[in-house]
Amino acid sequence: MLDRDGFRPNVGIILLNQKNQVFWGKRIRTHSWQFPQGGIDRGETPEQAMIRELHEEVGLQREHVRIVARTRDWLRYEVPDRFIRRDSRGFYKGQKQIWFLLQLIGHDWDLNLRATTHPEFDAWRWNDYWVPLEAVVEFKREVYVMALTELSRYVPRSDHRNRFLRQGIRPQESEQSYGDIPNACFELPPGASFQPDPLSGNERG
What we know:
Elements: E1 7-16, E2 22-27, E3 33-34, E4 37-39, H1 46-58, E5 65-70, E6 75-78, E7 94-104, E8 121-127, H2 141-151
Parallel strand pairs: 1-7
Antiparallel strand pairs: 1-4, 2-3, 2-8, 5-7, 6-7
């Protein structure tokens, strides 16, 4: 389902935990990280599509989240020809998205990357709100900045020390990472694996 300009309606999801960290998923069989997103089917509203994609991609139900905010207008990105099927070139341009900011009111163990037979992610982590854009496929980065910026006003104002990370700048003095904690033990939801550094071995795709 494309609009007259060649953009497919889509939703994006920024899921917050109680520490204002966001769900950050590694696309299956790639080194690219992103937020959950998916197409709006014919007859669906953006909110209905978001709830469906939330379950399909991360295993959550409507009762596990609170809807905090959404972007007012569509945010668009074009997909380079090399990522478009040959038979779709010429009339498919990319995605137009409504982004939702959600608060997790369930638990980490409610997340399940294997909720369907066609998983989108094979690993996940909680990340600072201003995600490192170098881990995102290049043609999506501008939309990520626009969505994060517009929705940031609705995030509880607890800590914005890492805002500069959206520009791809690494801090000089970082807090202790999970990998630095001796004998650290993490309990993961079904179907999840933990990768403390999503930037390692990054490839675009």
